[in-house]
């Protein structure tokens, strides 16, 4: 099992000039730490969630402090330093997206998110899927495979949008529940679904890395009213999200508008 000292040592030894490659390395290494922790001594789910969040957060923030000391960091597990609002570069990270799924040892739908915001735009990012293997980035994001005849719309396992069934009916689509925002977004990127629809509350760290990777794959990303997604806001709350194949964006947005 990876100790606190191990995570500090890994972070101290890392070097990387490319922001995209750094995002990939950070997300991938955090995934290794989380997989090792998950295979360690059996502990209650609540303890595994807490340990996973903390170990991944500590590693990511230590590595960023060493490798990008002038950049600000917005992490789900860290105190929000509003100095980031004056910064030109902000790393937006979710050390463990899908803690519930992570604590269920037979599930692989959890992720690590690392994204870089620069002067108003997301410019680099990576989403690691340690349970499945790959880390997808904004530089090497695959183009989606051909769409299924019946669109598959991914929604939250625990809190799908109230109007999701109506939207699915209008489009002749299938609703597919899945954990972790990152896992759902990357399933669309990898061609395992055509859309990911969320409404009911998220934060910037839930979507920043998935969005920049999805955009690199040529996918549509927006709020559920079609408005742009904006990051590094004073309040990082971001209530809703749509990631989908571009040809489905207008039909889905129209269906949402009439269903809400």
TrEMBL record:
GO biological process: 3'-phosphoadenosine 5'-phosphosulfate metabolic process; sulfate assimilation
Keywords: Hydrolase, Magnesium, Metal-binding
One Pfam entry name: Inositol_P
Binding positions (Mg(2+)): 76, 94, 96-97, 206
Gene3D superfamilies, alphabetized: 3.40.190.80, Fructose-1,6-Bisphosphatase, subunit A, domain 1
InterPro entries: CysQ/Inositol_MonoPase, Inositol_monoP_metal-BS, Inositol_monophosphatase-like
GO MF entries: 3'(2'),5'-bisphosphate nucleotidase activity; metal ion binding
Chemical reaction(s) catalysed: adenosine 3',5'-bisphosphate + H2O = AMP + phosphate
Secretion signal span: none
Required cofactor(s): Mg(2+)
Statement: the UniProt record of this protein carries the keyword Zinc-finger: no
Top-level taxon: Bacteria
Listed name of the protein: 3'(2'),5-bisphosphonucleoside 3'(2')-phosphohydrolase
Source organism of this protein record: Cryptosporangium arvum DSM 44712
């Amino acid at each position: 099992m990876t100790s606190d000292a191990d995570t500090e040592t890994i972070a101290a030894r890392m070097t990387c000039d490319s922001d995209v490659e750094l995002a990939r390395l950070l997300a991938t290494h955090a995934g290794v730490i989380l997989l090792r922790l998950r295979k360690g001594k059996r502990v209650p789910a609540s303890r595994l969630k807490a340990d996973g969040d903390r170990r991944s957060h500590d590693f990511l923030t230590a590595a960023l402090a060493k490798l990008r000391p002038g950049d600000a960091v917005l992490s789900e597990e860290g105190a929000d330093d509003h100095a980031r609002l004056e910064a030109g570069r902000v790393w937006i990270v979710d050390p463990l997206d899908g803690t519930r799924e992570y604590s269920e040892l037979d599930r692989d739908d959890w992720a690590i998110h690392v994204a870089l915001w620069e002067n108003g735009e997301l410019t680099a990012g990576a989403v690691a899927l340690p349970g499945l293997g790959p880390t997808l980035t904004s530089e090497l994001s695959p183009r989606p495979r051909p769409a299924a005849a019946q669109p598959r719309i991914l929604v939250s396992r625990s809190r799908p949008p109230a109007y999701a069934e109506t939207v699915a009916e209008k489009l002749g689509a299938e609703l597919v529940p899945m954990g972790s925002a990152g896992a759902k977004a990357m399933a669309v990127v990898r061609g395992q679904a055509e859309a990911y629809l969320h409404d009911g509350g998220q934060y910037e760290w839930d979507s920043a890395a998935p969005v920049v990777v999805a955009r690199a794959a040529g996918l549509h990303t927006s709020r559920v009213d079609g408005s742009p997604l904006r990051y590094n806001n004073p309040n990082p709350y971001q209530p809703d999200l749509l990631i989908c194949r571009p040809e489905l964006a207008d039909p889905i947005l129209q269906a949402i508008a009439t269903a809400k």
